[in-house]
């Protein structure tokens, strides 16, 4: 990417369908709403209030309690797992207000591009306001059908969202589809590997607000069955971090 290239136009060239520019991001959905009625958790993630406080208050506090890992440590782990320093195209699925998209974009080499993808207009509006840059662009769409061609990105991630989304395994397969051979994938999601009394209580509570708890094997097995290699998993409290690579 040359210094004078517009990230919006560069990203438009990666899409497999048309998009309009709204509030500074590309939108492939427009007014279309095909998702099921949102859960409490999904409504929260689509609210302007949560979008405003998410990056500085909501996420750092809730994720530290859930894992014992600080946001800074999460971002460093993500950059290392995704080999960001040598990546050229990065896709951050369910990027929210861009709290990972922008830091990862700053670590890309010259000419790299980080695309933040989300379905929430409120989150993306906040991302454009707070986390834009010469190597970032944001796209609104449905992750169950990512609007990108096969093998478009050499780094693909989703941090702290799959447990909120309908059809999370379909979304994970879509992430694998758009990953280039030799590329890296990383997810952070829920983990239900605690002893039975705690696991049952967590799962029941999570279900009330619309959060899915995934077991230890769900995404490890999914990545392996999709042909990915070097699958690794870290678990901390109620979260798991899973990484893998697509063979060359």
UniProtKB/TrEMBL annotation:
Domain Methyltransferase type residues, every copy: 91-187
InterPro entries per record: Methyltransf_11 (IPR013216), SAM-dependent_MTases_sf (IPR029063)
Key word Methyltransferase present: yes
GO molecular function, one term: S-adenosylmethionine-dependent methyltransferase activity
Gene3D superfamilies: Vaccinia Virus protein VP39
Entry keywords, A to Z: Methyltransferase, Transferase
GO biological process: methylation
Name of the molecule in the record: SAM-dependent methyltransferase
Species this protein is from: Mycobacterium intermedium
Lineage, uppermost ranks: Bacteria, Bacillati, Actinomycetota, Actinomycetes, Mycobacteriales
